[in-house]
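User: Could you check the structure of this?
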Amino acid sequence: MTSRPRFASTPSLESCGRRPVVVIGAGPVGLTCAIDLAMRGVPVVVLDDDDTVATGSRAICWAKRTLEIWDRLGVGQRMVDKGVTWQVGRVFHGARELYRFDLLPEGGHRRPAFVNLQQYTVEEYLIARAAELSDLIALRWRHEVTGLTQGPDGVRLDIATPDGATMLEAEWVIAADGARSPTRTRMGLPFPGQRFEERFLIADVKLADASRRADFPTERLFWFAPTFHAGQSALLHRQPDDVFRIDFQLGPEADPELERQPERVMPRVRAVMGEDNPVTLEWCSVYSFRCARLERFVHGRVVFVGDSAHVVSPFGARGGNGGIQDADNLCWKLALVVRGEAPESLIATYDEERGAGADENILNSSRTTNFMTPKTRAERHFRDGVLDLAAEAPFARSLLNAGRLSRPCSLAGMALQTPDRVPLAGGLLPGEACLDAPVVDAAGRSTWLLDRLGGSFALLVLAGAEVPDLSGLPPGLRCVVVAERPMTVPGAEVLCDTDGLVGRRYGAGSVAATLIRPDAHVAARFAALDGAQVADALDRARGRSGASVQEAA
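Assistant: Sure, the predicted structure tokens are below.
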């Protein structure tokens, strides 16, 4: 097994001072939170009870939306450069291919549908990015939280360090300490859900012979009832550094200790990779899983993110990607509250929005698992009938569920979004995640729309060929004008929509402007530039308008 780096011991925290935000857990979600907050000027302390990155591939499939979030945080390109890019999946029943799908059939997007990159590499890159922000991020390895006491305006943390016990006070705590979250346990919070008894084997194997790698395309390959394995399903993904990840379904009676032994693992691996291919075992694990979530993600001044808040099955890549969306949703709100620019009640909208996202992910994940592992005779007859028809009948392919892959969750109808009053259909609706498109800046350089959106509130103005009148808009609101030709608009950045994709994706012809949230979701859109309407929508999106979570519900 490839060894993973240990991080140098860091000075223990002193038992004094009060920190704006403390993050518990230095996995992908916790590190993303820390980087996001630091880029908004908020000092962060990250505590982790270990001093290494994850072992094994664990989370490997990172979706387009996640890559776009990491772009904003300055680490997306590094992830893409190292990762294996893919967008095509193929589904088999036995040796017969049922169909293939393309997750990004249209062009005009900077990022691919998915990148495969092992979790340990993701963590290494995020740690390196955090180190570049060390004036605002204090990473503390081997700092284990042993106690948590919450008051009306903050949290006291007791911490065991290599140099002895210490204490830290924080205005806010982000619990990103994983599926077994000690913070969740310490606070006595129920974690209800459904446990699935099926057991699965993960094997990371390295294929040393470069001439043989071309036999394994960069596609997601999924088998129902594979001819090479006695279980009900198998899944193959290609990863960087000549490593392949194989998931084997073993059944509920499998003995985890026995099945992870190399003499049991390698015959299964060679049945997939070929008996004469020189493969070595990098890492393996046997797992079962559950779908579960906290009833609420916000408990006073402690906010739960990622697996500490919700867990799903690994099929569909919804766990890690959902956690990164948690960070993206929470951190702009928390930064505004910490700086005194928004009421504390804004944090309740994190619970509303990401709770709905967790419900959506759990629903899709549970449906996938039930299709893959039918529990009743009726479920099995349905599954087998779909498999029999899927090769010839398009309607059956829509029912075939080998993992509905992660997509950004819509926030439509929730408290921060202004109800849509644009009379004509088309374009992105309030609550939807922004789409990218190629544009040209004022200097004639090709760039991407999402590079100019997100991070702070922005008004995207679709100007066409006419110079827009921006007078009367709220002072200080950043304006991005997208036009058909170069023009000068005082107080705004102008981009040219050379391919017309911005107009088509955001509703040109019916939409004059779109208010974009700091997490690059649509907050509101307008049929005409009306300063009062924009100001009202901006107040609502900042949690200042009196619109409440209860009202939206």
